[in-house]
Amino acid sequence: MRDDLHALLDRLAFRPKSVRHPPVRTVEEAHLHYAGLEGAHTKNAFLKDAKGVLVLVTVPADCRLDMKALPALIGSKRLSFASPDLMRTVLGTEPGALGPLSLIADTRRQVRFALESSLLEADAITCHPLDNAETWVIPQGEFKRILATLGVEPIVFSLKGAVG
């Protein structure tokens, strides 16, 4: 999948700023290595609703996901975490490396993408490129171009007032 991701970047003539670091599995671990990078840091969850619909949710790294409030915000029913095996199969991504760029592997368009609205207001976001030992800074315009090229229309939701 990384070859597909690099081919996409070549087509878009985009080279992201990146930083290599030891593999990280949590936001807290990641901040030790890239807290100085510009852009809104993100965290991600791979979820499945009561009907089996898969959802990749991306929120600012400092947000707490309220799993009871989230379904109503994204137009879904009860949500639970999908298995790591399902993430590997559908998104070609290992736990700890999940992010919006994982959608490149979703060639069958099985995964809905839900994005917290403040990330669309940020000048740039940071995310892993299918590898939790690297982090990329993606300017907002490039992020939107990547999603459009992948044919991904995000479900945009706001956590303002919905988190504790």
Automatic annotation (TrEMBL):
Regions that span the bilayer: none
Q: What GO terms are given for molecular function? A: aminoacyl-tRNA deacylase activity; aminoacyl-tRNA ligase activity
One Pfam family in the UniProt entry = tRNA_edit
Q: Ligase as a keyword?
A: yes
Please verify whether the record's keywords include Mitochondrion. Answer: no
Q: Which residues form the YbaK/aminoacyl-tRNA synthetase-associated domain?
A: 21-144
Q: Which UniProt keywords apply?
A: Aminoacyl-tRNA synthetase, Ligase
Q: Which residues form a coiled coil?
A: none
Similarity-based family: Belongs to the PRORSD1 family.
Q: What is this protein called?
A: Prolyl-tRNA synthetase associated domain-containing protein
Q: Which organism is it from?
A: Nguyenibacter vanlangensis
